[in-house]
Specification:
Length: 187
């Protein structure tokens, strides 16, 4: 019986350790957006975000507060966010944030943030009001150094491959056409 207890303890111990380093949240109406805002408000040095879609005013206001407190914030968006009506990408660029767009094949469908190299926010949750109010989504807050290191590595890869964001004065018609018909523009 004692050996069975030892075996069970050895199997369960790693799970118990990991459980202390992770929070799980769900939407709709599960408070995911507020959890993200709270974690952003704790940032002190650096925040790197790879986000497919960002339209949440509350989250953007938290990012602005972080920047005002001298937190370096870098964001990689999917290329579709250049022209998406409700995207906050242009808003962030106008306020001096470091923003880039993934321009590779397919979508940059990641949804994660690494805060001060010790907090990871990830999951299916897009940072949008719709995700908070209507969608079945999940959000994980992970405080595990090896996992965070993998996400940090992936962010650096995405950042290195992405194109710098800029706000153009033109109406964006050419850019929309180029995204819809890539062969049309030749660039």
């Amino acid at each position: 019986m004692r050996s069975l207890f030892v075996i069970l303890f050895l199997v369960q111990a790693p799970l118990l350790c990991f459980a202390e380093t992770m929070e799980v949240h769900f939407s709709p109406n599960g408070g995911c957006q507020q959890v993200i805002v709270d974690e952003i408000d704790l940032a002190r040095v650096r925040m790197d975000i790879a986000m497919y879609f960002l339209t949440s005013r509350d989250i953007v206001q938290a990012l602005v507060r972080a920047k005002e407190h001298q937190v370096q914030v870098r964001v990689v968006f999917d290329k579709s966010q250049r022209i998406q009506s409700y995207s906050k990408a242009a808003y962030l660029i106008k306020r001096g944030f470091e923003v880039k767009y993934h321009t590779g094949e397919g979508l940059m469908h990641n949804k994660f943030a690494v805060i001060d190299d010790h907090i990871l926010i990830t999951g299916s949750f897009n940072w949008t009001p719709t995700a908070e109010r209507n969608n079945e989504e999940n959000l994980l807050i992970i405080k595990d150094a090896p996992i965070i290191a993998k996400y940090r590595e992936r962010f650096e890869y995405l950042w290195g491959q992405a194109q710098a964001g800029e706000v153009k004065k033109e109406d964006g018609l050419r850019e929309r056409l180029c995204l819809m018909f890539p062969g049309l523009c030749g660039d």
